[in-house]
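look at this:
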Amino acid sequence: MQTLKDKIIEILVKDGHINKGQLEKALNIQREQGIPLRKVLIKEEMIQEEVLLSLLSEELYMPTLNLSKYKFSPEIIGLVPERLAKLYNLIPISRFGNTITVAMTDPLNIFALDDLRTLTGCNIDTVLSSDDDVSRSIEAQYSLESKDMEHILEDAFLQQDSLDKSGVELVKQEDIELSSVLEESEKAPIVKLVDLMLNQALKKRASDIHIEPEHDCLRIRYRIDGSLHDVFKIPKSKQNAILARLKIISNLDITENRIPQDGRFKVKSEGKEVDFRVSVLPTTFGQKFVLRALDKANLSIGLDKLGFSEQPERIFKEAVAKPFGMILVTGPTGSGKSTTLYSVLNQLNTPEKNIITIEDPVEYLVEGITQVQVRPDIGLDFSSGLRSLLRQSPDVIMIGEIRDSETADIAIKAALTGQIVLSTLHTNDAISSITRLIDMGVEPFLVASSVVMLCAQRLARKICLKCRKPIEIPEDFLKKIGFVGKANFYTAAGCKYCNNTGFYGRIAILEAIIINDEIRDMIIEKKPLDYIKKYAQEKGMKTLRDDAFLKVQQELTTLDEAIRITSEE
């Protein structure tokens, strides 16, 4: 049977894509460097990879598949060992009955196909994918997190230096010094496993770790840049030990399995301290844990470095500089509202100011700020807590969230009597906060008098600069979505650096509006929101979509991402 190399030569010469001289040059390089001919042809720019794949697909009657956006299943990946996947540069993508489909760079390699049939006992179907595509996918899917628990436990025993100073070390309440490497190596396997899990999460920039009991295993997922990713599964037999370890370090009651619990712990990683907020919820198959990583380094950078666009940042600074009034930040869960408010608090945190927060739960522990945890079980809710803290002579108050009419009423009156009040609401845009407060029973004239700024926020994923690819967007589509101006558009490809997602980090998208005298009059007169919004836009307000499109023009994100996180006006 023909090899892939012979087939490529036959196709390219027959169709006139390369001449005899180019072929001789490519073959010489291939012999000298010992790399596949197709890689030489692409590297020497004799043919584009997409064109070569298309020609092979047509000649072999075989479909091609772009793996960068393919959703892999851990169960399917487990059908083929990592050693075999790397040896033949292939990866399993699906299984139907007794047939496994694999993505390959060389579908004419009969040795690979025979080995797969023998190993799996299944028939093998193939699709064509590029070298880089398959290599990236293998790297992502067969990484440390994708190994089963036995391999991780084995690593915990054998790699005594796997958690050196680049790993994590639990910070004890009475002693925050790192323990010695000797003590680290003597940890029990379960302890070492939990440390490995925390270490990997921080290395991959995960904001949350989800530990979810299922009927046959314990599932571990990381939330990275807003999206959840499966990392590995732990055998059910280890579940109780893992969860008990997490409860111990979080100072939770290990004997209580029936009710939700909240705790926290602290680790040191790469020279900085990271707080983890722990939430425990009883479920059908055991207790689900969600660990939220809270890195204080993100808070001390100030408003200038949060990545806001020039116009909303100017409005924010103008509002914060006012001596009193309410500043509201709105947006869904996970849109960065807390980080923004804490950054403002850090900016205001001086010895002359008494700053008090009331939260559920307290997220970041900040030195110099009085923080109150809501405890509804003992009658300490937002409204009663807020009444008490007003008697503490505060200059700045931060309320975790305005949830009811009583809290809204007290907050509004606090803003009118000389305090700066920061809080959050759940609304779709900035202007809708006005209606939400009025719906809660606050009189329109009180809303108009107390609120100084409204802000809506979202988080857009930043495109990975190492693997982004330029694309063309049709003019009629840009016109349809209201995109104005020139821009270079990119698509997210995926590489090892960004964990094969195409994105690395996130950036804030803001819609901010200062409440001036004209808007106050409109609120008192109960003008429709559309009327107020139209006026604000005429005065220069940038909507969420406007700011998202600006980030696209600055080449910070993709057009798809900008459309995904914002709604049409």
Residues 488 and 553 are 7 Å apart (CA to CA). The first helix runs from residue 4 to 14. The mean pLDDT is 83. The radius of gyration is 28 Å.
